[in-house]
Amino acid sequence: MITSQVGINTIKAFESLRLGAYLCPADVWTIGYGHTDGVKRGDLISADQAERFLKGDVIKFEQDITRLVKVPLTQGQFDALVSFVFNVGTRAFSNSTMLRKINARDFAGAANEFSRWVYANGKRLAGLERRRRAEKKIFES
């Protein structure tokens, strides 16, 4: 599967475009639309580079989800998971109760897991709460 425009728009809406490197709430250097690989203080990019980073990152997470999820997904489920894994990372997802529930075909249970992922550095963040509600809604669509 590939991420639909709904999935891309969700990522863009919650990551926002930043052309200069910044520390995200989890204290990770970030640039563009949530790109973190190799980013360091002082980095600057163009909007075109941000789009290229986004496309590459989305492809990586699509591949990770395809590898980890052992059951068929709807487009909405796939889009929601790409946004989710884009934010929390493959390692966290690979060890998650959410993934176990998905692979057990407990999709309702998996949808309820989104609300557990609203913390960064031990702090509950309103932005993550909004993102998880949006991802759950897409997952259930």
Number of strands: 4
How does the overall form come out from the CA principal axes? Answer: globular
Major sheet size, sense and barrel closure: 2 strands, antiparallel
The computed structural class is mainly alpha
CATH topology: Lysozyme
Enzyme class: hydrolase
Keywords: Antimicrobial, Bacteriolytic enzyme, Glycosidase, Hydrolase
EC number: 3.2.1.17
Pfam families: Phage_lysozyme
What is the topological layout?
Elements: H1 5-15, E1 18-23, E2 29-32, H2 47-68, H3 75-88, H4 90-94, H5 97-103, H6 107-113, E3 119-120, E4 123-124, H7 126-139
Antiparallel strand pairs: 1-2, 3-4
Helix pairs in contact: 1-3, 2-3, 3-7, 5-6
Core attributes:
two-stranded antiparallel ribbon, 7 helices, single chain, globular, 141 residues, 10% strand, 4 strands, Lysozyme, two-stranded antiparallel sheet, mainly alpha
Write up this protein.
This protein has 141 residues and is mainly alpha-helical. It has one domain: Lysozyme (Orthogonal Bundle), CATH 1.10.530.40. Helices cover 57% and strands 10% of the residues. It contains 7 helices and 4 strands, in the order H-E-E-H-H-H-H-H-E-E-H. The protein is globular. The mean pLDDT is 96.
